[in-house]
């Protein structure tokens, strides 16, 4: 079907055009139905909300949905690798490439990141005594940007155009010369749009923490999760900006014939530098919030103040700083030379020092404490030895000579998952169980929660511990089958069994959610006997919190107020605080970028221009017509 006279690529098949037209019409009809608000007021409420708790809940909900989708991809991968010479009916070579691409991309960008941002949305304003994030409208826009990017990426599956370039998108394979068609463009624009939303949320968190803390809530009195959110947000500003530049350059290579990463003047190694300048700080962007979650949980259920609070804060900052000094350890085999390899090997080893400080401080916090082995505490305890194992293999990989042997084997896959799952995923589940009362007003069932923990932890180690062995036996990563004579039959089967055990654990978690909301009971404001300010407000947290404002005189002020039998000091003085005003505009702005990405992907110039016009029209409406969020009072924390 040749529609080039409309600016539509002649290479786009009719069924794809029909599918997109149907999708757009269906979306508009659904939107019109929702706007009527006669039968779906809850959906309309969340579609227009700018409240931090509701936005955080949507981050967690959709992040978990994409986590489940990526988890299914992982089970497909492990099913293909269960036995040698397997010919799993849905996993031919090209499909396998698509599956491991979508698994990695979704897990990093559309599952782990949004769930962590959701927990930050829920907890950080409450922990520092703020009534909301500094810019509620921008907060909602950041979420809808993430959602639009994630939907754009995932819709490729339904159009038989799933990308197959790995989550790293290595050039020149990701250029149009080697991967023509729209598949890789779904990767480029999906990650790009979502990344813009992530940067918006990071800016919002930084301003909120610096400018909207309660009276007396000095930086030196903040909970460690809020500290982790602040440092993580600063990492996001740099890392996602670099990733955005890389994706823009790749877009120009693919769409407009430039040659940044290919040809006589281009260099594919440039992509590796840009990607890993983002990619390795991204590891700490995922890990640092989890460190903050574990810190708050361990202090709560040890009934002790965190051991070495200043050292914990400094180590968080050092990890963030050193995270930008290690990116080229992913490129030891590229040929950068011995001096570069040595520098990045030394910095990689050095980053273990502040991480080790945190491990010892957590252990000393528990020493002599009155431990309560709740579900969040179990996830925190399971994290410590698991993460140490991932750190040890990281030090092994930091030795450039050894890295030449381990590179591109299952050993690297095992190391990466030991670091990310043991910190980020265990941290997310710990945070969900811990703050679930603040999100919904219910407490998840403890027996099912502990079953979930043990099944997941055992399955995790069964899956990835054997991969160290297969990697040292030479099994490459990104390979879709292996031979009997390779001698890795048993270890691969154990890994597959472990992966399905993790899947069963997720089913237990889902059953816990269902049971809690069908037979559970509402809980009070402080079900965990907490230490920080979020446990002073009702469960779930209302949209109007901290009236009157608490006055903070020390760390863990709520805990010591309970111990002394005296209430927290409060003030009736109005503190600078935003008003979260509902608005449909953030969702429409994100949808307009979805339209722009669709138009550029298929060379539908008319559609791309229309989406751009829509985007800037909404900005004008927001600026000159829509009432801006108000602030009142005077800030107390302008240092």
In N-to-C order, the SSE pattern is HHHHHHHHHHHHHHHHEHEEHHE
In the sheet with the most strands, the strands line up as: 1-2
Task: Write down the overall mean pLDDT.
Answer: 88
What proportion of the residues form beta strands (DSSP E)?
Answer: under 5%
Rg, Cα atoms, Å = 25 Å
Largest beta-sheet details = 2 strands, antiparallel
As an assembly, this protein is single chain
Task: Walk me through what this model shows.
With 639 residues, the chain is mainly α. The chain has helices spanning 14-36, 41-48, 52-80, 93-128, 136-155, 183-211, 224-256, 268-302, 309-322, 338-350, 352-366, 375-398, 400-406, 410-440, 446-472, 489-519, 557-564, 585-601, 605-624; strands at 549-550, 570-571, 577-578, 631-632. The protein has a domain at 1-38. The strands form two sheets. It has a two-stranded antiparallel ribbon. Strands 3-4 form a two-stranded antiparallel ribbon. Helix 7 runs antiparallel to helix 8, helix 9 (309-322) runs antiparallel to helix 11 and helix 18 (585-601) packs antiparallel against helix 19 (605-624). Residues 1-12 and 628-639 have low confidence and may be disordered.
Describe the structure using short key phrases.
disordered C terminus; 66% helix; 639 residues; two-stranded antiparallel ribbon; disordered N terminus; two-stranded antiparallel sheet; mainly alpha
């Amino acid at each position: 079907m040749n529609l080039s006279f409309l600016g539509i690529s002649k290479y786009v098949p009719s069924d794809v055009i029909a599918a997109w037209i149907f999708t757009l019409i269906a979306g508009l009809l659904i939107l019109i139905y929702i706007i009527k608000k006669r039968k779906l007021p809850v959906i309309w409420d969340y579609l227009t909300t700018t409240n931090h708790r509701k936005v955080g809940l949507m981050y967690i909900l959709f992040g978990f949905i994409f986590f489940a989708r990526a988890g299914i991809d992982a089970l497909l991968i492990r099913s293909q690798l269960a036995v040698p010479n397997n010919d799993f009916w849905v996993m031919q070579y090209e499909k396998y490439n698509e599956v491991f691409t979508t698994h990695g991309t979704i897990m990093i960008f559309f599952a782990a990141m949004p769930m962590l941002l959701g927990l930050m949305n829920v907890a950080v304003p409450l922990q520092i005594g703020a009534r909301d994030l500094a810019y509620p409208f921008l907060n909602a826009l950041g979420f809808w940007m993430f959602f639009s990017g994630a939907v754009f990426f995932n819709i490729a599956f339904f159009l038989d155009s799933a990308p197959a370039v790995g989550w790293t998108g290595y050039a020149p394979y990701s250029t149009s010369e080697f991967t023509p068609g729209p598949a890789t463009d779904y990767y480029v624009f999906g990650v790009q749009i979502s990344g813009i939303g992530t940067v918006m949320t990071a800016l919002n968190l930084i301003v909120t923490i610096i400018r909207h803390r309660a009276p007396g809530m000095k930086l030196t009195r903040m909970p460690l999760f809020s500290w982790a959110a602040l440092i993580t947000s600063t990492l996001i500003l740099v890392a996602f900006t670099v990733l955005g530049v890389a994706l823009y350059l790749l877009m120009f290579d693919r769409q407009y014939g430039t040659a940044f990463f290919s040809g006589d003047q281009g260099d594919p190694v440039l992509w590796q530098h840009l990607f890993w300048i983002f990619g390795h700080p991204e590891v700490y962007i995922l890990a640092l919030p989890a460190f903050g979650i574990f810190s708050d949980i361990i202090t709560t259920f040890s009934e002790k103040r965190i051991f070495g609070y200043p050292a914990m804060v400094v180590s968080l900052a050092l990890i963030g700083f050193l995270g930008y000094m290690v990116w080229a350890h992913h490129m030891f085999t590229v040929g950068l030379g011995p001096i570069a390899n040595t520098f990045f090997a030394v910095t990689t080893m050095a980053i273990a020092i502040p991480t080790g400080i945190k491990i010892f401080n957590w252990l000393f916090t528990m020493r002599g404490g009155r431990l309560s082995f709740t579900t969040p505490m179990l996830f925190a305890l399971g994290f410590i030895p698991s993460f140490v194992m991932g750190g040890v293999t990281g030090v092994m990989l930091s030795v450039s000579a050894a890295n030449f042997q381990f590179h591109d084997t299952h050993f690297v896959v095992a190391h990466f998952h030991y670091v990310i799952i043991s910190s980020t995923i265990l941290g997310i589940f710990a945070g969900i169980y811990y703050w679930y009362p603040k999100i919904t007003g219910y407490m998840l069932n403890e027996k099912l929660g502990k079953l979930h923990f043990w099944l997941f932890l055992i399955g995790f180690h069964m899956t990835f511990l054997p991969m160290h062995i297969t990697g040292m036996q030479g099994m490459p990563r990104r390979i879709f089958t292996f031979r009997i004579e390779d001698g890795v039959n048993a270890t691969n089967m154990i890994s597959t069994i472990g992966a399905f055990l993790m899947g069963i654990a997720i089913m237990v978690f889902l059953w816990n959610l269902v049971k809690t909301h069908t037979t559970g009971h509402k809980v009070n404001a402080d079900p965990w006997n907490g230490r920080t300010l979020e446990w002073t407000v009702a469960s779930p947290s209302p949209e109007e919190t901290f009236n009157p404002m608490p006055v903070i005189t020390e760390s863990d002020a709520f805990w010591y107020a309970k111990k002394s039998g005296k209430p927290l000091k409060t003030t009736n003085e109005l503190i600078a605080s935003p008003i979260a005003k509902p608005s449909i505009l953030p969702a429409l702005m994100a949808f307009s970028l979805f339209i722009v990405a669709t138009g550029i992907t298929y060379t539908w110039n008319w559609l791309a221009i229309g989406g751009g016009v829509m985007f800037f029209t909404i900005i004008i409406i927001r600026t000159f017509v829509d009432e801006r969020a108000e602030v009142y009072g005077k800030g107390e924390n302008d240092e």
